[in-house]
Description:
It is a multi-pass membrane protein. InterPro entries: Cation_efflux, Cation_efflux_CTD, Cation_efflux_CTD_sf, Cation_efflux_TM, Cation_efflux_TMD_sf, CDF_Transporter. Keywords: Cell membrane, Membrane, Transmembrane, Transmembrane helix, Transport. Residues 207-284 form the Cation efflux protein cytoplasmic domain. Pfam families: Cation_efflux (PF01545), ZT_dimer (PF16916). The protein is of the alpha+beta class and 295 residues long. The chain has two domains: 3-201, Cation efflux protein transmembrane domain (Alpha-lytic protease prodomain-like); 208-293, Cation efflux protein, cytoplasmic domain (Alpha-Beta Plaits, 2-Layer Sandwich). It has eight helices and four strands; from the N terminus they run H-H-H-H-H-H-H-E-E-H-E-E. It has a four-stranded mixed β-sheet with strand order 3-2-1-4, with helices on one face. It has helices spanning 3-29, 32-58, 73-101, 109-136, 140-169, 174-201, 208-221, 254-271; strands at 225-236, 239-248, 275-282, 292-293. Helices cover 68% and strands 11% of the residues.
Amino acid sequence: xxxxxxxxxxxxAVGVVVLGLKTLAWWMTGSVALLSDALESTVNVxxxxxxxxxxxxxxxxxxxxxxxxxxxxxxxxxxxxGVMIIVAALLILDEAWQGIRNPRPLVAPWEGLLVNAxxxxxxxxxxxxxxxxxxxxxxPALVADGHHLLSDVVSSAGVLVGVSLAIATGYPILDPILAxxxxxxxxxxGWMVMSASLGGLMDKAVPDDLLRDIHETISSNAGGAIxxxxxxxxxxxxxxxxxxxxxxxxxxxxxxxxxxxxxxxxALRDRLDNAQxxxxxxxxxxxxxxxxxxx
Length: 295
């Protein structure tokens, strides 16, 4: 099992443990806010399962029906995670509304808060691992899972503060009010996860700083060519796709043109961890005098 799959599997185990602790905290206190926190953890487990499934599919090699590979499966998982985050927020809003209409006193609050704090600490540690490793491994599914857990960590912290205030002031209605505020924050988190993933599904170009690096790499390694134009890029999971037209002098032999293309491809692969590069060689009269000019 590679590192990405190992981390995705770990997310399921962590999610189950945290769900158990948060459910125990709710059972001990009867707090609507703690129930909301437990509901979000239920979604965490579901999305962790979806992420593992998507990563397994994304790592399948290209085949006759998917010649460009299965990398976009991770984006689909990330979109699903965004939807599930929003569903969790709506469930929390419903519970909060019921709590506002019928505030209930809390029982055994401090013990329940300690259990919930333990669950939040576990989530915070695992969230940091997911975000760091997801970015390093270029896994949209792991990064989305990390952002999802981050929203859970923030909401858990807010719940702890809110329930503590409800206990200290003697106003139990603060408990569901805080749960509603947490739900709004989670809705925003879900939208951000979805919008980032939809960009990948729509073949959004690589970030501007990486695009500049690609320009510079082509320009610095295309000696013997005239120019490169019609550069297009996109990302799918950990894979980056780059294609462009490379204009050659009419006297350049096929072997010379091939050697130049090989040099550019090798330089781009040194810059990009996983890349699929397509270069279309054109004669001099196709030059547009724009795009990537050769140094």
